[in-house]
Amino acid sequence: LHENYAGQGLVVAGFPANDFGAQEPGTNDEIAQFCTTNFGVAFPMFGKIVVTGENKHPLYAELTRARPTRDNDAEAFRERLRGFGMTPTEDPEVLWNFEKFLIGRDGNVVGRFAPTTAPDDPALVQAIESALAG
Length: 134
Known about the structure:
Elements: H1 2-5, H2 28-39, H3 58-66, H4 75-83, E1 100-103, E2 109-113, H5 122-133
Antiparallel strand pairs: 1-2
């Protein structure tokens, strides 16, 4: 997405969080190195933040307030988490790593997508194209 749409104004930004199964225990430098080496990440990666609960970063407090539910279904992923003996978060909280928020050119949240949404998912791509056109 970053490569395909950056020229039209899309900025992908990564915000690592260790809120979900302690999947990001490393330092900011270690996380950035891992993402660059293993996934070729070329978009901005910010420092690790908290994205759920009482101590969530103000950015995520605003994102979840502005868009309290996802634009696509996350119930299958919730069931998968339950199958692993985990208790998924409830809306409006972020469900897991790689949940996606789409912010329009005007700064308003115009989309929110489940963690399982692939970068090439047609609904996500359409939402991005609509936001870039608007």
